[in-house]
Each structure stands twice: as C-alpha cells, then as structure tokens.
C-alpha cells in the first residue's frame, strides 16, 4: 500500500520537475535557439569565444530561474517524501 503511494508520488513529482524545468528554465528557447544567439551577437564580434560566452550566460540565467521556481522545490520535496514513504 505505502509502496504504491510512494511510487505514484515519485512519478508525479518527476513529471512536475520536468514541467518546472521547461516552464521556468529552458522554456521553448530550443525552437529558435540559433536566432537568439545570433541576435545577441550582432553587436559583438562573431568570434568563437564571444559566442560561447553568450551561450553560457543564457544557460546560467536559465538555471537561476529554475532554482528560484516554486514548482522545482515542490517537486524535490515530493520526491523526498516518496523516498521516506518507501522506507516505511
């Protein structure tokens, strides 16, 4: 009984975690990723290091948005509760 509840809670939390990463973090940037990077580099030189720096800054901002998201922390808490329930 507890194992079934724990499994369902873990799967629900995992789905919530994936949703929070898509909504808060990467969003739908992967659809037009090349155009966004090109737009950011219009004023900069088109060197490889400038391109890498722009991409890294965007990834850092996305990661910060995910960590600040309430959905992310609710999903993590749900996973921890499900692990505790599976131990009982």
TrEMBL record:
Keywords: Membrane, Transmembrane, Transmembrane helix
Regions that span the bilayer: 9-31, 66-85
Membrane recorded as keyword: yes
Top-level taxonomic group: Bacteria
Name this polypeptide is given: DUF3899 domain-containing protein
Highest classification ranks of the organism: Bacteria, Bacillati, Bacillota, Bacilli, Bacillales
